[in-house]
Amino acid sequence: MWKNLLSKKRYYSPSKIEEDSNQEYYRSSFHKDYDRLIFSNSFRRLSKKTQVHPLSKNDHVHNRLTHSLEVASVGRSLGLKAGEFLKNGYDDTINPYDVAYIIQTACLAHDIGNPPFGHAGEEVIKEWFAKNAQENFLKELTEKEREDFQNIDGNAQSFRIVSQLENNLFSGGMHLTFSTLGTLIKYPYASDHCKSIGKSKFNYFQSEKEFFKILFEELGLTKGDGSFRRHPLSYLMEASDDICYGLLDLQDAFELNIITFEDMKKTFNLICGEKITQETYDDTHYKDIQKVSKLVAISMNHLAMHTMEVFEKNYDAIMGESQPKDLIDKFTNEQLKAGIKEAKELGSRKIFNEKRKIELELGAYNIIETLLDNLIRATYELYIKENETKLSFRNKRALELMGNDKPEKSSNLYMMYQRVVDYIVGMTDNHAKHVANQLNGMGS
Questions:
Q1: CATH class label, 2-8+28-115+143-218
Q2: With 423 labelled, which of 118, 187, 276, 333 sits at a CA distance of 20 to 30 A?
């Protein structure tokens, strides 16, 4: 089983799937995956993308890049522990460092498909496609194609970027190993599944459907009914993200004076214990932000250690047909479970409804709506006209703003629209604002 789950195969085309055999002792197949992610343009652009607070002028606040690096750090530690557990209990050929690299790289990639302005940007795209569903330029799409756009999820876009777009366009993307790609997947289903679960969580578009099937068959994760099981290591990737964002969002909010020490005290009391929390609060040798950083670090360690306990305890279920929802849902330490819940509730109460954040997200709404209004309509005209020379002046110029990323004229309207969404999702916050200003005639 683990031979398949730790597959070194890479996808180049439907007729070319090969196991990576070109390894040196200092650079394994999974190490190469990590390098390809770190050196990619899509990953580098995360430094100018919102994590929680759009266009923040405070350099200490997390962006998507710093968040991803911190998640990867937690993931690497969990991976080493998981590797030792698997080697000692199930397969002595497993190298714990391979497992660590796989999870670390999946953590680096987990947010690479998020649009500018964070989840607010995602919501705008979904709403725009839902609002315009009856317009002529969307009516030609199939229901499943429309659902891809109306439920757009950064998880599915992340998979599309690493497996299709980055480096080798529509020829395997980054050529990551199957094990790393599988570990990246939290929701192994398509957008039409969103209706049954009542929320927009899925991991592949119709355009990646065939490759997704190949990937999960190779990993041995296909069920008898044709649906898919999660890769066991994806649970540790997901937990690393949950541990980080639940706590680091609070740290950012404290840095921005949105919440106070007292606001966070209940969370720290539950996770770190009242004694450690009070001692840290009372320590006059540290500045307040240093005290918060220390308690966040202690909290993350406690949560990571318990996560591994839960992974080991639920190993059989994770490897089986009826897999658990996630590891934090299975926490047996009620204090830690309550601490994570309190952190998330504090975020909902005081952070996500903070006035300045709302103002900036409304601005983000207008920016992304402007981009979609102009670029989707221009793309539709390209689709129905004989060639590019027949386009209206405005639409031709709008598409030229996209440079090499503009869609090619095709008989497949869905794929043409996908290239527009690829372009918008790939933008940094600042670039999205710049292009929207250009389209509105406000550019310099």
A1: mainly alpha
A2: 187
Point out the least confidently predicted range of 201-210, 346-355, 391-400. Answer: 346-355
CATH 1.10.3550.10: does it fit domain 355-439? yes
Q: What span, in angstroms and rounded, lies between the C-alpha atoms of 293 and 358?
A: 26
Query: CA distances (Å), 437 to each of 49, 266, 367, 432, 434, in order?
Result: 18, 44, 8, 9, 5
Q: How much of the chain exceeds pLDDT 90, in percent?
A: 75
Determine whether 397 is exposed, middle or buried from the number of CB atoms within 10 Å of its CB (0-12, 13-18, 19+): middle
- Report the distance separating Cα 351 and Cα 118, nearest Å: 14
- Cα separation, 420 vs 425, in Å, equals 9
CA 190 to chain centre: 16
Whether this model's pTM surpasses 0.90: yes
Structure tokens given for 148: 């891809």
The segment(s) of the chain belonging to CATH 1.10.3210.10 are 2-8+28-115+143-218
Longest dimension (CA), the chain: 73
Residues in the chain: 444
Q: Which residues of 113-143 are buried (b: 16+ CB within 10 A; e: fewer)?
A: bbbbbbebbbbbbbebbeebeeeebbeebee
CATH of domain 236-351: 1.10.3410.10
Average pLDDT, the chain: 92
Q: Are 346 and 267 spatial neighbours (Cβ–Cβ below 8 Å)?
A: yes
CATH 1.10.3550.10 range(s) for the chain read 355-439
* DSSP 8-state secondary structure symbol assigned to residue 330: G
Q: How many CB atoms are located within 10 Å of the residue 431 CB?
A: 15
Q: Which residue has tokens 């649009």?
A: 115
Quick check: 51 pLDDT over 80? no
User: What is the C-alpha to C-alpha distance for residues 172 and 184, in angstroms, rounded to an integer?
Assistant: 15
- CB count within 10 Å of CB 3 equals 10
pLDDT given for residue 54 in this prediction = 53
Q: Tell me if residue 14 falls in helix, strand or coil.
A: coil
| DSSP tag of 115 | P
Q: What is the pLDDT of residues 198-245, one digit of tens each?
A: 888 999 999 999 999 999 999 999 998 999 999 999 999 999 999 998
